[in-house]
Description:
Radius of gyration: 21 Å
Order of helices and strands: HEEHHHHH
Number of strands: 2
Distance between the termini: 42 Å
Strand order of the largest sheet: 1-2
Number of helices: 6
Structural class: mainly alpha
Helix content: 55-70%
Strand content: under 5%
Amino acid sequence: AWYWASANGLREDPRPVPLGDGRTAMPHPGVPTAPSWWGLVFTLLANGTLYACLVFGHVFLWVAAPGWPPPRLLPAELLLPLAAAVALVAAVGCAARARALNAGGTKAAAELWLAGAALASLAAAGAFVATALVAPSPHAHAYGSTVVALCAYAALQSAIGSLYALYAWTRSRRGWVSAVRAAEPRATLAWLGYACASGMLTLVALWLPPWTGGP
């Protein structure tokens, strides 16, 4: 899929196409609301529904399930959640900067920021994986299962965001991206924005109980 998608598109900015009766339309690579953009929007909506179900299950167990609070929580530390939060914000910031630079025609600098977004998002994924590794065993109590599930979800979103940034970087390097043909930087920012928002909520859901001793 990566190879097929990376070889499609335009290497030159499109011009309006005549439709007849004096009307024109821009080909979809040159408009911000192309079909691919709406596909991403609906994907994120479905993704958010899945995430809401995971968070609901985590909170519901705290509120209504027997045998809670669990015998052991995540260690009440600061390093892992802080590392994850910084990496999430850095990824979004790099993606936003890359999009702005690309819109201004500074492609080389935009590519550097896209690379930074990929690395920061990968670091966020690593922080969530590390959190899952220090969580109580998912075989011992349902709390451990919900923690690992939330960590896996957040790590996956950040890992996909890293792939988005790397894909945009590759497309830009090969001449498929410009200030007009900017679907890739825009999609990268959208995914990383979602990954950051859901990741921050995940950090609250994961670390609030250890710090407060309750839901």
